[in-house]
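Most newcomers find our protein records easier to grasp once they have seen one. Read left to right, the backbone structure tokens trace the chain's path through space. Nothing more is needed to start thinking about how sequence determines fold. An example says more than a description, so a record of this kind follows:
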Amino acid sequence: MTATAAPTVKLFLDGKPVESTTTEWRDVINPATQEVLARVPFATPEEVERAVASAKASFKSWKKTPIGARARIFLKYQQLIRENMKELAAILTAEQGKTLPDAEGDVFRGLEVVEHAAGIGNLQLGELANNVAGGVDTFTILQPIGVCAGITPFNFPAMIPLWMFPMAIATGNTFVLKPSEQDPMVTMRLVELAHEAGVPPGVLNVIHGGPDVVNAICDHPDIKAVSFVGSTRVGTHVYNRASLAGKRVQCMMGAKNHAVVLPDANKEQTLNALAGAAFGAAGQRCMAVSVAVLVGEASGWIPDLVAKARTLKVSGGTENGTDVGPLVSCAALDRVSGLIERGVKEGATLELDGRNPQVPGYDKGNFVGPTVFSGVTPDMTIYREEIFGPVLCIVSVKTFDEAIELINANPNGNGTALFTRSGAAARHFKEEIDVGQVGINVPIPVPVPLFSFTGSRGSKLGDLGPYGKQVVQFYTQTKTVTERWFDENEVGGAVNTTINLK
């Protein structure tokens, strides 16, 4: 299929798909085959303005929609997502490269947030203090803030958009979404289903584009809050620019996640967990385990870990039994391959080289197989940079406290894990580790939506995380009301010029 013959991805404005008038397009490419699936437009300034204006106009009525009516839309929406799970996963695999089971997992983790949004009636509650002074009550109400925007990455094109717009809309806001230009098609299908579920026209709008559109979102005076997930470089830019424009901003960014292995850990369970967390989704997860810290005698497990990695099947995401699919783009392939070469040059031991795997039927795919380095030190590039590929760095240390010091010295704080059978060790780790999300015998400790995503330090900018309880605060303004009602027969007292309420 040629680029000119490929279908076009639409914008979504005023409740309907709209063909862009732009002259700037990007191909959406199947990373396993290099087939051009579609062309995505980079929205014009006028189209961005139209999306924001539509959201602003719709906010006037949407913010007054009863909370139960909003909740029922998301009850319907979760049903539609479940009914279309196979279709959504197939679209996702074609444009992003994940295996079909992993693609379904991507959709499902977003679906959990939709289910949470359906319970907004219990989440958006204020507080009341009765009779704080003579006949005076004080209470708070959580009101929507207006037009909000989301900028999402390529690696979770279903889950992360579903982290954003359902909670923003359920709390009474309207939304402008900019999905990744690399794989926008599954996001667009989710937006269509949201409107089928009953989201009114203008409440959810979608624009596509690159840096110009991102900057327009950061600068637009009618956008009150911006949620971002992606790289540290772009996230830092978004946070600084949007904050300077007076917006609320939350940015979930890069990571370097460590898993500490104590010698008492269950060996087989730990090896399986490390291999899955390091190489699943071809390592393209901000919560992937990219560093295994082996403590003491656990350093002897390296051959077993390499053997486990060798058992994983590298192939197209639609093939049965595939464990590791392709990287999202040719550029990603070049970057990961270059970092592997850099690791060799800087003195790490390449225990397993996943470059240039033979993948029958997919000779044009962006494949890198599981790759394992041992003898990695903190000064090496492969340790300092987020590789975002199926590459596991192994660091050996003598003591548990040395492992904790290593992790705490790293600037990132997205996630970490400990593998042990010792409750005392687990408690010590939870108390002393300076990382926002901690797993105990859980390699990727992404919380369920009852809680919030709580990455920290260099992995996060902004005080409040996406989804969960924190995001209700992010998408609402707390208004405190102090009121007194007088009995009609009550005789007024003297003028009170003090600050006291009596």
